[in-house]
Fold these 3 entries.
Entry 1:
Amino acid sequence: MKRKFSDRANWRRILKKSYACFTLDEPSFRGFVTFYKIHELRDPLWKEYNGRRMCLADKGYLWMQHFPRGEHYVVTTMFDDKGQVVQWYIDVCKTQGMTEQQVPWFDDLYLDIVVLPTGETLLLDEDELEEALDDGLITERDSALAQRTADKVLAMIRHKRFPYFELSREHRRTMLPRLGWELGKDERKR
């Protein structure tokens, strides 16, 4: 099981970035929200889903992560340089925590869910979960937790009860100005 940190301190692709973390305790969300803005990078990050090639990281892109308290998933919303959502990436995790330096982290349980702005939803890495179980990297209990969590999130998405699609846009619009980070001109008009 891999521990992943929200500040992505070891991401070699990135040459210059800005990072911020907020603790929120409001009715719509309780937990941590992080912002990772890419200023300079070696080369863009591209991913292909069902034959469609997409840029996930480039100059001006912003990755926002929601670490909901008490949940076994973390939601990363990737925004392009114009403030448009590229994708929502949901990591299923065993636990979440915070370093002494106030950097949220999670222990990844391999399963991931990608939701594209078109509504297309993909469950990824089932083979990695199975392999981790076979190799003794996780327990049967961990595997069952991963499956239950993915099923729960997929059901919430299917029934239009997954709040992070709107919440990510709202938090970007309301919190970036608090950081002194610019919104796109279209967003400033709203």
Entry 2:
Amino acid sequence: MTVHGFSPSGNCHKLRLLLEQLGQRYRWVEVDSSQGQTRTPQFLALNPNGKVPVVEFDDGRTLSESNAILYYLADGSEFLPADLWQRAQALSWMNFEQYSHEPCIAVARFIAGWTELDSPRRDELPRLRERGHQALAVMQRHLHDNPWFTGERYGIADIALFAYTDVAEHGGIGLSAYPAVQAWLARVRATPGFVALPEPDAQAAQRIALTS
């Protein structure tokens, strides 16, 4: 299979992490969404929504939306519970990630690192950080009594939530108030086959450092 993705993106890194941990062979095609490469006619033929990641299979089928791809790839593996209730709980947390977590934590990171320092979008940061802390507080409460989000063991809901939580500080959302979240991050990093999200390039890193 071919994965069309942007390496600094947490949504794309979710797939890389799962594929590596599955031991699945794949080809990675870098698509720089920050430079408009998801808006070309060639890419829009793969995903009319103009977003990465997209997985292209050998038979020509394509699948988009990171969590849908995680669910598809993990089916039948240890990363997705066989028990219907636990599977539904995993999907619940993956929906939480896309609707209550990613829109603030990921967007704050994007604005901090991938917009100009004088961008008007930076006015969004205080509200995004407030909402990001609300999402982390929900995770903290769950992790106080549970080691994972995918049921009784590590799996795709953990992968989905890990990607942007691990780099929340890039957007100015600190993790010091969430010890259970920090312990969970360490557990994910210790899983076999783990691969970390690449560090931002020099320009993005400089913007992150200069963003208050």
Entry 3:
Amino acid sequence: MRFLKNNGLTLVLLLLFAGSIFGQWLAGWHVAMDDARRHGQPILSLLAYTASPEFLSSVFENWESEFLQMATYVVLTACFIQRGSAESKDPDAPTRDAELVTQAGKPGAPAILRWGPLWRALYARSLGIVLASLFLMSFVIHWTQSARVAAQDAIEHGEAAPTLWSYLGDAQLWFESFQNWQSEFLSTAVLVVLSIFLRQRESPESKAVAAPHSQTGE
């Protein structure tokens, strides 16, 4: 029970993720079967659909935008301020991560901070670096699998299939990406602004319910 209490947020989010991707998997398979029947093509098994470019492209198209949102949010909140927002650092507060050499000696500080200036610099930016890397990985998989879908579609219509590199400049790829990116940036901006005036009781993403609108951060 202690494990569940201490890790409940992660566990619930992973359960929601599992249920959602399972639903996408099954619904996408039925869509693919309907499309195959209309075109008189062989119907993929559920297992074959799992490895199909249609499914992989749709999954990583969404992961790409989510990791982009998280990476930019982490980096931009380190650089910019929105006074009054729970999602922003306080412009009047002292710098939290100054003097890392001194802070490395505090009890419980990560050991990597004592490995030297290079390791300190990398660790100090590790969250943004890893999230950006996950974005790039997801984008590459989305790009390559979407290119396979485009190639299959071109062959079915008697057209020349685009190469992987030529598809990188294709409008379809960027339409798929930008339609997700714009919504992620908008939703983040909305959260930043709404957290100035609205509250969610006991949430660390919200200021205290009785906190003034002018208060920035938690």
